[in-house]
Amino acid sequence: MSAFIAVVLVCANGIAQEACTDAQALEVRKVRVANELGCATGWQEIIARTDLRDDIGKTAYLKTECRRVKE
Question: Quick one: pLDDT at residue 53?
């Protein structure tokens, strides 16, 4: 059985989307979710709780990924 990890990367506007990785991101948030749909929901609330919320759209952008992990 597989589970998923929802990953939200906060990247500076100067970094190309393809180059935005865990290593290049300003901040990385990860949470285990039950299915792929879980990767697409809830991240807005996670970011809204951080100090970075004011930077999104001005100096930074979000990139979301859904990663499959084996249990």
Answer: 85
Distance CA 5, CA 38 (A): 9
Give the residue ranges of DSSP H helices in the chain: 36-39, 43-48
> For tokens 């949470």, what's the residue?
31
Cα separation, 39 vs 35, whole angstroms: 7
Please give the structure tokens belonging to residue 67: 């990663």
Q: Give the sign of the dihedral formed by CA 38, CA 49, CA 9, CA 56.
A: positive
Q: Which residues of the chain have pLDDT under 70?
A: 1-2, 71
